[in-house]
């Protein structure tokens, strides 16, 4: 497993949980995406692993935060061109769905429901409840599950309806979405039936 990638995921999840607990929203995109800057980029690029507090501050500026695959901030306060609509959700969710292309990792924090959603390959793969007691302690396990999922191995639950009954809770406050085959394989691995 790629340690740098796991460190980036860990920082984004931890920062996302802090933002969600306060009832605020944000959008992180790791990878390449088409965007337009909304604010002057006065903060120079920095490694998000080394400075999660600055990342958290910049995430609260209206717009998305773009991070490269090495964990360096590329831009903040940007508008992502939405090419897809995330039905029953707002513009931030549509931008997140549009950015979740190729091997991009997208982390969206919703101020309404205080959830952190993780998207890969155009699909929501995980949802974290920031209000779940001790969810922060599960972040290392959450990152390992994300690595197991990997882009391309998860089926879709559809973008029009996102019901918790279609996901499976492997950790308290964490729902993992995917195809029935993937879920069965993961459960078999987890409970030693493989």
Tags for this model:
9 strands; single chain; alpha+beta; globular
Report on this model:
The protein has 194 residues and is an alpha+beta fold. Helix content is 30%, strand content 24%. It has 5 helices and 9 strands, in the order αββαββαβββαββα. The chain has helices at 3-21, 52-59, 91-99, 139-149, 180-190; strands at 26-30, 35-37, 64-67, 73-80, 105-110, 115-120, 123-129, 168-171, 174-176. The chain has a 9-stranded mixed sheet. α1 crosses α2. The longest helix is centred in the first third of the chain and has 19 residues, at 3-21. It is globular and about 45 Å long. The model is unreliable at 151-168 (pLDDT under 50).
How would the blueprint of this fold be written?
Blueprint: H1 3-21, E1 26-30, E2 35-37, H2 52-59, E3 64-67, E4 73-80, H3 91-99, E5 105-110, E6 115-120, E7 123-129, H4 139-149, E8 168-171, E9 174-176, H5 180-190
Parallel strand pairs: 1-3
Antiparallel strand pairs: 1-5, 2-4, 3-4, 5-6, 6-7, 7-9, 8-9
Helix pairs in contact: 1-2, 1-4
Question: Could you give a short description of this structure?
Answer:
This protein has helices spanning 3-21, 52-59, 91-99, 139-149, 180-190; strands at 26-30, 35-37, 64-67, 73-80, 105-110, 115-120, 123-129, 168-171, 174-176.
What is the global morphology? globular
Read across the widest sheet, the strand sequence of neighbours is 2-4-3-1-5-6-7-9-8
Could you tell me the number of beta strands? 9
| Proportion of helical residues | 25-40%
The whole-angstrom Rg is 16 Å
Low-confidence stretches: 151-168
Mean pLDDT: 79
Task: Describe the sheet with the most strands.
Answer: 9 strands, mixed
